Amino acid sequence: MLKFFPKPFRRFRIPAADKGFYLNLSKILGFSPDNLDVYKLALIHRSASVILSQGQKVDNERLEYLGDAILDAIVADFLFETFPNSDEGFLTKMRSRIVSRSSMNQLAISMGIPNVVKVSNGALYQQKYIYGNALEAIVGAMFIDKGFKFTSEVVVNNILRRYIDLNELQTTEHDYKSRLLELAQKQHVTASFHTREVSEEKQTPTFESALIWNGIEIATGTGHSKKEAEQQAAMQGMVALEKEFNNFSGEDTNNPEKRE
Asked: What are φ and ψ of residue 196, in 5° steps?
């Protein structure tokens, strides 16, 4: 099935079985891929790994690693050019918001990537950022297939400028934990996070955090780091506390996923 990046496919050589995938992928990305095999690999989640004849198990994790690094560089350059008068702190914060796991996952869903990802049904319920990780792997695939300059142009023009609202992103608050602890001080109550690792997998650790508000657990969160799990718990806690404190945040928390 996978030939590990052989000579590029050309449109007239695409097997009939791949035509549907090719057309769907071209529509999602906005260009015609050459090396179709590398994109196939980018869209295979670990739960649906392919076993080669020699027993090797392959999935999109290596391409995800590559794409993550390339995406960071592209986004940094894009923001550097877009905000010529902004300082390092602002640019770093904006980049973090764009490439955060939840942001990448929402981007992937908006682009239609769930329609082409190969993943087991069980993994969809256990892992939250499958589609965003696949998008990073696709960026890695683009780099292999087309080179950095082409990949940068596609990411900027077909993804960032199409799906990211920079004005909205600048006004979005993401540090839920700090805001919640500040609220606890104002209300003269105690707030703490009990965080533990719940996965034994070294490559993709999972942490779970419980938010204890005045001695009562009111929310939980999960993530691939302690910080991410605590931010998730804080975000859910703010949604829970909104009713009690009559929308204390002054912001729209009805759709917290948009604010990740």
From this structure: -145, 155
